[in-house]
Amino acid sequence: SSSYSNALNNSSNSIMPPELIQLQLENTDLRSRLAALTDTQSESKAELLSLLEQQTLHSSQLESKLHQLNAGFAAIEKERKMLRKAADMANRDRDEVEKRCGVLERHLKLREGEVGKLAERCREQERRIEGFVGERDGWKDEVGKVER
Predict the structure, then answer these.
(1) Contacts of residue 29, Cβ cutoff 8 Å, sequence gap at least 6
(2) CA geometry: angle at 47 spanning 46 and 49, to 5°?
(3) Read out DSSP for 60-119?
(4) Cα–Cα distance for residue pair 27/7, rounded to 1 Å
(5) Of all residues in the chain, what percent carry a pLDDT higher than 70?
(6) CA distance to 3, 7, 19, 25, per residue, from 29 (Å)
(7) 93: exposed, middle or buried (C-beta count within 10 Å: 0-12, 13-18, 19+)?
(8) Measuring CA to CA, which residue among 21, 29, 22 is closest to residue 4?
């Protein structure tokens, strides 16, 4: 605007052709526009630089989070593998225990059968003994009668 007033002052102090005055006015107008654009561009540059810095910071934060997530995923995967290995070992142990349990159950059934047979034999022996004792008592009574 100072250039514009200078152009007006110059035109009033001396006689200038109207085309020259028009060119000076246009020149002043263009300079004003250029100055406005330059200010806008520098502000835009500053805004763009600020935005770029913000985006760079945001990108760094995202990258940091990504590294943390990857580390977390790696830890989870390691724990999953460890748990899978422990589960597989537990399954093998369970299978072995079930096999041993089956063997022991069969052995127990055999022993229970043997005990049942022994109990039956004992009962049979007791019946025989009772028969012999009864027979003996009968013989004693007979011997006692004969002796009297």
Answers:
(1) 4
(2) 65
(3) HHHHHHHHHHHHHHHHHHHHHHHHHHHHHHHHHHHHHHHHHHHHHHHHHHHHHHHHHHHH
(4) 10
(5) 78
(6) 9, 11, 15, 6
(7) exposed
(8) 29
pLDDT at residue 1, rounded to an integer? 46
* pTM exceeds cut of 0.70: no
Residue showing tokens 């004969």: 146
Residue 132 tokens read as: 């012999």
Confidence check: pLDDT of 3 > 80:
no
Between CA 87 and CA 78 the distance in angstroms is: 14
Helix 2-13 × helix 18-147 angle, to 10°: 180
**Residues 93, 47: Cα–Cα separation, whole Å:** 67
7 exposure class (CB count in 10 Å sphere: 0-12, 13-18, 19+): buried
pLDDT value of residue 38: 65
Residue with tokens 């060119």: 23
* pLDDT mean over 12-28: 67
8 A C-beta contact, residue 5 and residue 36? no
User: Residue 23 has what DSSP assignment?
Assistant: H
